[in-house]
Amino acid sequence: MRLDITLQAMDMKMSQVFDGQSAWMITSQGVQAFPASQVGEFRKDAFRETIYLLTHFSSGDMSVQYLGSETVDGKLAEIILVTPAAMDALKFETVANTIQH
Questions:
Q1: Structurally, how many domains does the chain consist of?
Q2: C-alpha atoms less than 13 angstroms from C-alpha of 33 in its C-beta half-sphere
């Protein structure tokens, strides 16, 4: 899992990189590692990327549980709970070929 974010404003460029284990920031002043608490937040953000989730549902490193149907914003939705190893669960509401989280 890898997540790269690059921001550029007024001749200044900053990149944040997460490689699945560690995270760091690259600026004109050099490279600086993020503390462990922020690495955990990067991991959660990367996990919530829809493409990553859809390609890893059956990988064995997360559990997927069907919770049933509920009405969400006036529409019938199927509710799915996704829990990766050592992270908080994420609840998905699928409505008519869309995914909302």
A1: 2
A2: 7
98 contact partners, CB below 8 Å, separation of at least 6: none
Same domain for 3 and 43?
Answer: yes
Segments forming the whole domain that contains residue 68: 61-101
Residue labelled with tokens 């699928």: 94
pLDDT in the model for residue 99: 55
pLDDT digits (tens, 9 = 90+) for 6-48: 888 888 899 988 887 889 999 888 999 988 888 888 877 777 7
Structure tokens at 75: 């529409």
Token couple for 44: 């959660």
Q: Could you give the CA distance from residue 82 to residue 91 in angstroms, rounded to a whole number? A: 6
Q: Quick one: which of 27, 1, 29, 32 has its CA closest to 14?
A: 27
